[in-house]
Design a protein that fits this description.
With 117 residues, this protein is mainly alpha-helical. 86% of the residues lie in helices and 0% in strands. The longest helix is centred in the first third of the chain and has 24 residues. The radius of gyration is 15 Å and the shape is elongated.
Length: 117
Amino acid sequence: MSVAADVLVGVVAALHLYFLVLEMFLWDTPTGHRTFGLEPEFAAASKTLAANQGLYNGFLAAGLVWGLVADLTDVKLFFLGCVIIAGGYGAATVSSRILLVQALPALVAFLLVLFTS
């Protein structure tokens, strides 16, 4: 079961790397506009803010990868907890979809790591 936990931690890390790419590099492109439902004018005006947000997603991914590579349960749990909190905040302030895309996978991974360690 710990293999399943680590696979899910890896999926959450990969999702956050994808978010990094979307927010840092694709925000002001047709892909970014479609993904986030943005008007081109808003995307252009908020490009720097989105890049900053993408960088933070990269830090979350890096922490999760660190936890996987070093096999550190506490590090995995810490960064998964950060993702859960960020996903909950995003769901409350931006879109409830964030709860499903970001927080739920992290919560399932958190529980698997916690109960298989």
